[in-house]
Amino acid sequence: MSRRAARLLTNLAGVAALLFFAFPVYWMFATAFKPTNDILSYTPHWLPVPFTLEHFSTAIHRPNFGYYLRNSLLVTLSAVLLSLLFAVLAALAVGRFNFRGRKAYMLMVLIVQTAPFEALLIPFFIMLRQLDLLNQLPALILIYFIFTMPFTIWTLRGFVMAIPAELEEAAMVDGASRFQAFLRVVFPLLAPGMVATSIFAFVTAWNEFLYAFVMMRDATRFTLPIWLSTFQTAFGTDWGGTMAASSLFTLPVVVFFLIIQRRLVSGLTAGAVKG
Fold first, then answer.
1. Which pLDDT does position 114 carry in this prediction?
2. Is 27 inside a domain boundary?
3. Which of 198, 255, 259 is nearest to 76 (CA)?
4. Taking the alpha carbons of 104, 110, 112, 114 in that order, is the dihedral positive or negative?
5. Closest CA to 240 of 39, 23, 26
6. 271: buried, middle or exposed (CB in 10 Å: 19+, 13-18, 0-12)?
7. pTM
8. Is 237 in a helix, a strand, or coil?
């Protein structure tokens, strides 16, 4: 097979994969704009013509939507910031300093990362009940922080170890303290790792449903994933409202990625260190 034919097949495979994964997303957005009759029709309508905003209005004006949105933003952003703060310090400790138990510590981090979330539901519930934290948003922040912390530490540790220690030593020789050397030399080079882990932490906390549903009992403490489940009732499923709500639910993740994706690319470029 010639190189040109191989490249053509590779491009076709890439386009096929793109269409395969993008079509459900397109169908979700398209259905959100379709009238109810077109959604329930046996004949598929590929384009939302005519289109309507009725389903978006229904989704936004659903009871307690403002509380759901506020709670999701609060717990997600808090968990991401806390995870990055503590993970950077932990990654520096295990990546820069030799101390007894370092390998055992990283092994425990890896074991915690592989533990299934569902298996920890009952222990978390009992612990939070004893601490009188059930139906409290700090409980969700703590849980999401614990879930995202191991992956963040493991990833940032690799970035820390990839940064030559000689850069910090050179800065300290020039008169900088260890903190100043970290802030001016190491921290900028950690940007791509922090961006990558923040995306993972944001998506994990934003999409979580089970713990929010079990730990929160008051409707004003629910998050947006629980809001999505309210469109399915004993009388059937409001598919238009569900698709509109799902479209709105994905927008913050897309906006978050668009905001930091430039930083991700520039950080990867700036992180290249020449010897």
1. 83
2. no
3. 198
4. negative
5. 39
6. middle
7. 0.83
8. strand
CATH classification at residue 86 = 1.10.3720.10
What is the rounded average pLDDT for all residues in the chain? Answer: 86
**Domain count of the fold of the chain:** 1
Contact status, residue 205 vs residue 196, Cβ threshold 8 Å: no
In DSSP notation, 152-202 reads HHHHHHHHHHHS-HHHHHHHHHTT--HHHHIIIIIHHHTHHHHHHHHHHHH
User: What is the residue whose two structure tokens read 């949105």?
Assistant: 69
Evaluate the CA torsion angle 156, 158, 161, 163 in order and state its sign. negative
274 has a pLDDT exceeding 80 = no
Contact predicate 190/160, CB 8 Å: yes
Per-residue pLDDT band at 263 (split at 50, 70, 90): low
Q: Is residue 12 in a domain?
A: no
Q: Report the alpha-carbon distance of residue 105 to residue 150 in Å, rounded.
A: 11
Report if residue 139 sits inside a domain.
yes
Nearest residue to 68 via CA among 213, 243, 242, 269: 213
- DSSP 8-state secondary structure symbol assigned to residue 214: H
**Are 270 and 191 within 8 A, CB to CB?**
yes
